């Protein structure tokens, strides 16, 4: 059984959910069009569907002499928070581009650590490679000749990443401590030894609108879909006596 359901029940539930999602796509999502102007406004100001709803509420409250004291201030603060969070989504953090020589200190088949004497021998090799690099040998050639990086053919030993990306902490710390053109000491991580050369430091900046416009358009469309859901479900359940079975849609309906 899956989630306490028989295979037949599970199959029926999956079919029902697929049907609901197909109906939503046809009746709701397909009718929502996000314009380039809305995307540009989001990019420049952080205004999204929620902000526009708050703006509508504010316009109504400012005309209402009986509006609770402080509510307008609370809504303005909430609106500012949303805008700030939306604009933060557009920021690309500082990144660094590196090239490195890598030697594994774990067995690639068993994932077990290598014997200590093998680790010591590999460290000696890496120290020699580092000295050769410091003395001016072509680092890219040293990578091609000596690195045990599994992705060497695809990456040529080059990686670009931010502090938030899933690289070993020791590797990231070493990379971000170096200026472009500088070479690290031998860096030890859980999987091996590294000698790192920094090729470029890429400052934090706002993502280019052209590159993220499709993602922003999808985000705004999904917001509009969620906003339209309660009315849509109220209408279809009333007109067709449809029972909403999927819990995530029941939550929306309520």
Description:
The protein is α+β, with helices and mostly antiparallel strands. Helices cover 56% and strands 13% of the residues. The chain is built from 10 helices and 6 strands, in the order H-H-H-H-E-E-H-H-H-E-H-E-E-E-H-H. The chain has helices spanning 7-27, 36-45, 49-61, 71-89, 116-134, 139-146, 152-155, 169-176, 209-240, 247-253, and strands at residues 91-92, 95-104, 158-162, 187-188, 192-202, 205-206. The chain has a 4-stranded antiparallel sheet, with helices on both faces. A two-stranded antiparallel sheet has the order 1-6. A hairpin with a 3-residue loop joins strand 4 and strand 5 (192-202). The protein is elongated, with a radius of gyration of 28 Å. The model has no long low-confidence stretch (mean pLDDT 85).
What is the topological layout?
Blueprint: H1 7-27, H2 36-45, H3 49-61, H4 71-89, E1 91-92, E2 95-104, H5 116-134, H6 139-146, H7 152-155, E3 158-162, H8 169-176, E4 187-188, E5 192-202, E6 205-206, H9 209-240, H10 247-253
Antiparallel strand pairs: 1-6, 2-3, 2-5, 4-5
Briefly say what this structure is.
The protein contains ten helices and six strands. It has helices at residues 7-27, 36-45, 49-61, 71-89, 116-134, 139-146, 152-155, 169-176, 209-240, 247-253; strands at residues 91-92, 95-104, 158-162, 187-188, 192-202, 205-206. The two termini are 29 Å apart.
Number of strand elements? 6
| Main structural class | alpha+beta
Give me the Rg, rounded.
28 Å
Secondary-structure element string: HHHHEEHHHEHEEEHH
Biggest β-sheet, characterized?
A: 4 strands, antiparallel
Spatial sequence of strands, sheet with the most strands: 3-2-5-4
How far apart, in Å, are the first and last alpha carbons? Answer: 29 Å
Task: Provide the helix percentage.
Answer: 55-70%
Low-confidence stretches: none
Mean pLDDT across all residues, rounded?
A: 85
Shape: elongated
DSSP strand content: 5-15%
Question: What is the tally of helical segments?
Answer: 10
């Amino acid at each position: 059984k899956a989630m306490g359901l028989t295979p037949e029940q599970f199959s029926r539930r999956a079919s029902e959910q697929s049907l609901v999602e197909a109906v939503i796509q046809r009746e709701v999502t397909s009718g929502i069009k996000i314009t380039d102007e809305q995307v540009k406004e989001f990019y420049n100001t952080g205004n999204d569907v929620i902000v526009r709803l708050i703006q509508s509420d504010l316009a109504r409250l400012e005309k209402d002499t009986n509006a609770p004291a402080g509510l307008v201030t609370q809504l303005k603060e909430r609106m500012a928070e949303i805008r700030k969070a939306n604009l933060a989504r557009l920021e690309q953090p500082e990144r660094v581009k590196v090239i490195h020589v890598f030697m594994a200190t774990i067995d690639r088949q068993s994932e077990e650590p290598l014997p200590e004497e093998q680790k010591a021998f590999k460290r000696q090799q890496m120290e020699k490679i580092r000295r050769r690099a410091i003395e001016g040998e072509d680092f890219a050639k040293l990578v091609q000749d000596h690195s045990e990086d599994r992705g060497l053919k695809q990456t040529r030993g080059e990686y670009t990443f931010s502090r938030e990306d899933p690289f070993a902490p020791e590797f990231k710390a070493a990379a971000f401590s170096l200026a472009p053109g500088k070479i690290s000491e031998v860096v030890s991580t859980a999987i091996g030894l590294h000698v790192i050369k920094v090729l470029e430091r890429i400052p934090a900046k706002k993502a280019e609108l052209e590159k993220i416009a499709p993602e922003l358009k999808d985000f705004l469309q999904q917001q509009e879909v969620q906003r339209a859901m309660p009315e849509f479900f109220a209408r279809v359940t009333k007109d067709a006596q449809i029972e909403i079975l999927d819990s995530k849609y029941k939550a929306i309906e309520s």
